Amino acid sequence: MWSLAYIFTLFGMSLAAASQAPCIELNDGNKMPVVALGTGRGTASESASVDEVRQSVYWAIEAGYRHIDTAAIYFDEPQVGQGIADAIANKLVTREQLFVTTKLWNDKHRREQVVPALKESLGKLGLDYVDLFLIHFPVAEKEDGSPDDVDYLETWQGMEDARQQGLTRSIGVSNFNATQIDRLIANSNVRPVVNEVEVNPTLTQEALVSHCQELGVAVMAYSPFGFTVSRKNPDAPPPRSDDPVLVGMANKYKKSTSQIVLRYLIDRGLVPIPKSTNKNRIAQNIDLFDFYLTKEEVELINRFNKNIRVIDPVDWKDYPNYPFWEY
Ligand SMILES: NC(=O)c1ccc[n+]([C@@H]2O[C@H](COP(=O)([O-])OP(=O)(O)OC[C@H]3O[C@@H](n4cnc5c(N)ncnc54)[C@H](OP(=O)(O)O)[C@@H]3O)[C@@H](O)[C@H]2O)c1
């Protein structure tokens, strides 16, 4: 049986209060909380207002989250910034206690575009710096959405510029496959601290996760619930939230199946990014640090893998550097 202290030591974490996520140390020495609030609105209901993001960021900080994930393309950086400002004004936290991640969109991949793009994000967020800035996809697009031929190695030079100018503490990537990560590391001065990719029970990404972890690149897991939560696709693969394997674990640990899925990711050394705009579910999604799954239970959930993506940008299949040809 693994002890909590052993698990945290294994992944370089320090122990924290029940509703506050511990931190991992990134390869540049900065520390990152192991649960982030997702603010991407791809899964928001059609009736939802964008201001719900401001409210959910505030509720999240109140519930103990110290890591917020946003992106230029979510068009919610102003609301994220307002939620943060409200929390700071009400003395829930200081800026230094928060870890804010944002991302560069595909049409700003030329080196000279990167720093201005980050400055624009910072202006919207109302912040002087972010903690982590990611290349959202290795794919470059023109402003009209047609493919562009900018190499992500050039983009990375712009990311290094942004870091050097103190606009971001750390830099990383998102949606890079293993070959792209290797090529980036072999041809740059600064190693990415993070690769943010989709990981959940139907897309377990074991090879990519191990590869990144061996290179000291932490993996953030987006769409962490996979198809366990309601998705529009009626043909979505199992498991759903009522799956007997997940329900069995939920009963054993007196948690919800959503908490089991998040804990499964944490027990693999990943940093899940659950999105919710519901106060109770926001709190539930960080109430994860008074239990852990056994190695066998993690393996059992790995067996659901079907290499099926929630986020599958098929329109970009013919674009240079499309990443999802390999897992
Ligand atoms: N880097 C990238 O390319 C990329 C791509 C996609 C996403 N992301 C990031 O990852 C975040 C999460 O991904 P996602 O939004 O696709 O998926 P997700 O977090 O796996 O799922 C969100 C859905 O789950 C529901 N939910 C949340 N907590 C729940 C709980 N405890 N029980 C039952 N249902 C629950 C939410 O509804 P309610 O809001 O009603 O609770 C929402 O419908 C995004 O917000 C974004 O920040 C990054």
UniProtKB/TrEMBL annotation:
Q: Which residues form the signal peptide?
A: 1-18
Active site, per annotation: Y74
Which of this chain's residues are annotated to bind substrate? H136
Statement: the UniProt record of this protein carries the keyword Signal: yes
Q: Name one GO molecular function term.
A: oxidoreductase activity, acting on the CH-OH group of donors, NAD or NADP as acceptor
Matching entries from PROSITE patterns are given as:
ALDOKETO_REDUCTASE_1, ALDOKETO_REDUCTASE_2, ALDOKETO_REDUCTASE_3
Q: Where is this site: Lowers pKa of active site Tyr?
A: K103
Ranges for domain NADP-dependent oxidoreductase:
37-305
Read off the Pfam families from this record. Aldo_ket_red
- Domain of life of the source: Eukaryota
**Which keywords fit this entry according to its UniProt record?**
Oxidoreductase, Signal
Q: What is this protein called?
A: Aldo-keto reductase AKR2E4-like
Q: Which organism is it from?
A: Vanessa tameamea
